Amino acid sequence: MDTKTYDVIMVGGGVMGCATAYYLLKNDPQIKVAIIEKDPTYEFSSTVLSDANIRLQFNVKENIQISQFGLAALETFGEEMAVGGVRPDVAFRQQGNLFLADEDGKDATLKGVETQQGLGCPVEWLTPAQIKGRFALFEVGRLAGGAFCPLDGTMDAQAVLMGYKNKAVALGAAYIVGEVGEILQAEGQVIGVRLTTGDEVRANFVVNSAGAWVQKIAQTAGITLPVDPVKRQVFVLETKVQTEVVYPLTVFPSGLYLIQEHENVFMTGKILPDDPIGFEFSWNRGVFMEHLWPELVEYIPEFDQLKVARGWAGLYAVNTFDGNAILGEWPHLKGFMLANGFSGHGFQQCHAVGRYLAELILGQAPALDLSIFSPQRILDDKPVFESEHKLV
């Protein structure tokens, strides 16, 4: 049995684990960090299977601040993550996000706009007539209005992941291909992990950054987290529409969303009540035909003729407690750090969360206080909810 020793171990080399490793090494170049990833191809990684959006439009102050830092980090991402003179290009496309509201959701959306504007976000409320004037495809008869932010946008998720991974490795992180089978602990202190091969990797800090697989990892330490792996499907549509402007990522009142990829090609998806729980990645065109297409046509009549060109399925790590991130040290196991339960928001939150976890591990004062998302709130039964109308 082989045993190696580090200061910090990342269980999972997706964007959250790699971002945390980067910020650890940026803040302390001498720290010894290991990133353990079971699948370096990232075929089923939630990072690369995400829609890769970042938005300021949240209702919880800290979530907004997380995105503000994320936007700032993206401005210099290529320069900061350059390795050997090669700069990653994340192809950030700030087409904006538009959250449409019906009468039932209007008050909650307006309250969110007020919070966002109070933090300096350029979010504006659009009337139905203004929405129709800007985005002629939309049928607005059932809408009360919508919130629009021009800074929100989409990007290349793979490029962000590889940017953090390659930079962390260049700064000294060890990238270990292997699967963690067990969290090791002694007298209330984490001491490392055991791989499924039997090899041990020792450290006084272990970060559970395993995405949708976090529950399995935590259970090996006797910890039950309220996080389920839930399958979400994305559908790519080829339409006959012609647009005079670039359409924002649009979220309809039910949570159905639409992203214009280019010209007449769009992506769409929706959280459905019977989305399967588990590690299953099959893709079903019939879900679009039965559940999404009828609603899309109600808002965009020109979508009555289209082609489902392709699609995919990925996993959300859904926090069934309150839908928000679980960040920080587990209260009853010293050194076991959680970055879990992002419920579909993890990709966009990796920048601030990676920095925050690094600061906690290094004993530094956090630049952004995210203690509202501490795992202690689960033990205290004090959930932190976003608006029910922010469903993506």
Number of strands: 20
CATH superfamily of the largest domain: FAD/NAD(P)-binding domain
| Class of secondary structure makeup | alpha/beta
Distance between the termini: 44 Å
Describe what you observe in this structure.
This protein has 392 residues and is an alpha/beta fold. The protein folds into 2 domains: 3-84 and 156-226 and 321-379, 3-Layer(bba) Sandwich (FAD/NAD(P)-binding domain); 97-151 and 228-316, D-Amino Acid Oxidase, Chain A, domain 2. The chain has helices at residues 15-27, 61-75, 77-80, 103-118, 128-134, 157-170, 214-219, 285-299, 346-362, 376-379, and strands spanning 3-5, 8-11, 33-37, 53-54, 97-101, 124-126, 145-149, 153-154, 174-177, 180-186, 189-195, 200-202, 205-208, 227-239, 249-251, 257-262, 265-269, 306-319, 326-329, 336-340. Helix 1 (15-27) runs parallel beside helix 6 and helix 2 (61-75) packs across helix 9 (346-362). The longest helix has 17 residues, at 346-362.
